[in-house]
Write the structure tokens for this entry.
Amino acid sequence: LAALAEAGGEGGLAWLDLSTGELTLCPVERANLPSILARLSPGELLLPDRLSQTEELSPLWDEWRARLTIQPNARFDSENGRKRLLSLYNVGTLDAFGSFSRAEVAAAGALVDYVELTQKGRLPRFDVPRRLAAGQVMEIDPATRRNLELTRTLTGDRKGSLLAAIDRTVTGAGARLLAGRLSAPLTDPVRIDRRLDMVAYLAGETALRIDIREELRRTPDVERALSRLTLDRGSPRDLAAVRDALERAVSLRGRLAYGAGGIAPPLPAGLARVVDGLGGGQGADHEALIGLLSRALGADLPLLARDGGFVAAGYSAPLDELRALRDDSRRHIANLQAQYVDLTGIPSLKIRHNNVLGYYIEVTAVHADKLMSEKHRADFIHRQTMAGAVRFTTVALSELERKVAEAGDRSLALELEIFGQLVAAVITVANSIAITARALATLDVTASLADLAVDAGWCRPEMANDLSFDVHGGRHPVVEQALTEQGGGPFVANDCDLSPGQRLWLLTGPNMAGKSTFLRQNALIAVLAQMGSYVPARSARIGTVDKLFSRVGAADDLARGRSTFMVELVETATILNQATRHSLVILDEIGRGTATFDGLSIAWACVEHLHEMARCRGLFATHYHELTALSGKLPDLSCHTMRIKEWKGDVIFLHEVAAGAADRSYGIHVARLAGLPPAVISRAEQVLQILEKGDQASAASRLADDLPLFAAMAHKPAPRQVVAEPEPSLVEAELRGINPDELTPREALDALYRLRGMLA
């Protein structure tokens, strides 16, 4: 749940994860709103009425229309928001939590107010507010997230995305944390290295890592259980989830502190904090709560508390007495049924129960007269006549029913009272449980990334606070995994060095040679490195990227009336306007959606702008070979190409990147691979030869005159080739002299042996 506000000429955004209680605030500018909302992807966005009518932001609101909740402007007052936060945290000032702008406080206050309103006064647990300063995470705009398929593919599937390729977590909280880290890579090399130290430690401790992952597999989702309990929507199973998760945390804490073999290895700072967090932090101890829940909860727990039967025998003496009375009364009912059978001589007589009549005596219609006779009329009171049965009751049965009902109601009421006490005990230490939950999730993510690094042969990136980007033997994580699963060949690794002096690469080469894969893999390597993961490469040194931009692929936006080319230019404009020296830009085939000279002109100007104005690191793939002339003018522009090999008229794609420039695009060869008709391929080759010989305008006129000839060629049969027939072999000559109809069986057998001998 997120809320956006503006105050004092500034913007502020606040968002709450209801499952964990994490409340985050950050300053925001209108230009950065699309990137931040794409990263958060809130399920609901609260917006003041004034902002919803801002013309500048209307295209953005069109995208989020289904998730917008418009609120009155008064709910976003910064002073009222400050008072709500002070009341929520029971403090006199917010200074202890950080320095927040008026807009941030207004957004957080509106968010808290909305939660209280929708939850009917039952507020969930709120963690202390955390401020995310501008620039702390890598900015990735919506188009780039979509093009790079970070968490979803272009078709909306999780399978095939980067998240699916790297997710080896074994807990729900770990999976959520991994997705959050992938969506918001860090920009501080110190914080990134802290995460990498943790991954490196567990990558080197194989036995410990295996033990940790096995323990985590048996760990319930304590974050979600705690959230339900604090919202008064919990169940006995949620209490058991808290107990079991805390037990796993105690066990994991011991394993980390003393290692898998009983020796205490030195832990990196990050893992040391995880060990402290597993205990609840600040000297907390979960042993008392674990003991309480273990004693109180039975083995077979119902889905809902009102179903009863979840409190363990021996935990509450009064409850045990009520249960004994209830169970004893049921035995009395069974005894009473046996007495009535003996008294009436009706063996089929049964004492049954339903929610309308309660307990009743039921006999078949055949035996009903016996109970209505003078002998039994005083004892058995008629209640109901059915088609095949008649129902009665007695004074003794009614009295027994009252005792059973009272015992059952009193025992259930006492169980619900005990349930409330247990929930209160959990909520009392909710903050320390939440710390433990985050530590468990962090440990899961760290162990899963370490397992991936070891299994896939990834390396630890060297993070720097400069403009370097030097990757040796880089690979595409998703494509490589797909090749492995399909039993294909090895992925062809490539180097990429965008360090100063060659920070902008101009990449040429044919289609199908791997340009787009190469572009994407380097962007994904940057994302993986800055989220704190090892990367698919032999080595990598990366200066942190503040903003990542990718313009890859083609798609239209018919809902807004935008053609494919218009969408391409809008995305390119965003990149050129927002890229900085610390950004990484990936551009593929800019200008291809219009006339040749128009497209070449746009691509030319974009390369110059990236080099001279943005001065960023970038990869620019193109089929406009004329752009390679810029390498003599722009000192930091480096020309590279995808290597191919021509063999007997065919083109073999080597998928290797090498210095230099391509002289051809081999588009006709790709058209042949795609299955275009042979006549079309032949004509295309003729047209290409004519266009390459001279002036394109005059060549186009000559080609237009040749169109009837082209049509005739399409229907003209190919000339028949005359091939000399080879001389017949001795076996063939012998076979021609044999008439099978004239041979006796013996002659046929002799002939077969004779022919066999000729072959030998």
About this structure: The CA atoms of residues 360 and 393 lie 5 Å apart. The chain has a mean pLDDT of 87. The longest helix spans residues 395-428.
